[in-house]
Design a protein that fits this description.
There is one protein chain. This protein is of the alpha+beta class. It has helices spanning about 5-20, 70-85; strands spanning about 30-35, 50-55. The protein has 2 helices and 2 strands. A two-stranded antiparallel ribbon has the order 1-2. The protein is globular and about 30 Å long. The two termini are about 20 Å apart. The chain binds zinc ion (2 copies). One zinc ion binds near residues 25 and 63. One zinc ion (ZN) binds near residues 25, 27, 61 and 66.
Length: about 90
Amino acid sequence: MRNGHRYREWRRSVFRHYGRVCHLCGHAGATDVDHLKPHAHFHDDHTDYRTGRPAHGVQGCPVCKVKCNQVRGDQAMQDAHERELD
Ligand SMILES: [Zn+2]
Ligand SMILES: [Zn+2]
């Protein structure tokens, strides 16, 4: 189950440890946090900053214009669907 408060705390600690450089394109200005594991559904994920990395979100990267986290998010959703069939 998602816990909004814990998720925000987790995002903040990811930024604190890794800064604002997007781990997907390598440019600064990340506004979002990407899950290293494609599944956000394990409740453990939001207790450890090492499960996330900074990434560009809906506003996109100011340098290369890619919405890094969304590009990866599509793949993660496909993975999740396959996983649910198990
Ligand atoms: Zn990026
Ligand atoms: Zn970029």
